[in-house]
Amino acid sequence: MQGKFCYLPLIEGFEIVKYKSCTTIMKYVIYIISGLFLPIVASAQKNNIYTDAGICLSYIDPGSSVTYNYNCSRRISLGAGVQEYTFHTTYTNIHQLTPAIFGEFRYNMKQRLKGRYFSFLDLGMNFYKSNTSDYHSGDYIYTVPGNNGFYAGLGYGYMHYTTKRKGGPYLTLKMITNWYKSDRYDLYSGVRDTGHSSDGTLVVSAGFKF
Known about the structure:
The protein is mainly β. The chain has one helix at 21-37, and strands at 4-6, 47-56, 61-71, 76-87, 96-108, 115-126, 135-137, 140-143, 149-160, 168-186, 192-209.
């Protein structure tokens, strides 16, 4: 029998997963895009570059991101970015460096003195090679049949202005998640299900807006 379901992961034990070639390729893509975007910042005040480094709280591993966005209005800006963080991406991909590319919606709150709070929503894709091993939890066996997953990130931050273009240092706290297709087999009933699962972690980061 087959059906559809939606469930959240139960983490039982950890396994180090070797970095795959796609991860290495995306890492270089992140560096190249960063180098191409930075020079355009000075062209107009509506163009912004956010660069930051952070810590993934699940494993206390470092990561980074670069985001370009355009100020559509005083409060709203749209953009795109790249990042790489180490986190638990799927049931079977544990402690894996995962590059991502995303589009961003940013809401800038009312300015207070020399700073401003902001929130943002990122939607895109995580890039990784799926681990073909099984994951056991209770009466269930989980497998992840496909590579890559849907990336969603939600964050909140504060920026302190130190330049004429209203650039400066900032701090953020964000949740990064990976949504992916997974298969589940019930050892007790023999039922096989296919559905979607999610894994994620909190990230604390500090950066600078140019």
